[in-house]
UniProtKB/TrEMBL annotation:
Organism: Roseibium aquae
Residue ranges occupied by any Carboxymuconolactone decarboxylase-like domain in the UniProt entry: 25-107
Pfam families linked to this entry: CMD (PF02627)
Taxonomic placement: Bacteria, Pseudomonadati, Pseudomonadota, Alphaproteobacteria, Hyphomicrobiales
Name of this protein: Alkyl hydroperoxide reductase AhpD
InterPro entries documented for this protein: AhpD-like (IPR029032), AhpD_core (IPR004675), CMD-like (IPR003779)
NCBIfam families: ahpD_dom
A molecular-function term among this protein's GO annotations: peroxiredoxin activity
Amino acid sequence: MAVSNWQDFITQTDGRMADVRKGIPDVAKGFHELARAAIAPGALDSKTKELIALAIGITARCDGCLAYHAKAAARYGATRQEIVETIGVAVYMGGGPSMIYGAEALAAFDAFAEPE
């Protein structure tokens, strides 16, 4: 699916995820804690971890992953060049489909990032 407006996509997905969280609150709480712990700085900083998550989202062809991790990467200060290089690694690992989703990831990042 080609997303035309990443901001709207996140707003819509947030609403849908709220419905899911209401139905499985314990699972949702556990997932939230897992995400928080996984992205917390350690040997790797949070930005690097979000770039890894973005690369996985590209290879998994997950639009929601692209949106949320591109937004988070921008929040953690990722540059457009870092995003492009992340896409390069994803293409290396995932082939042609990752090239297409890499382009989507770059569009998502551009929607959330401050102009350089």
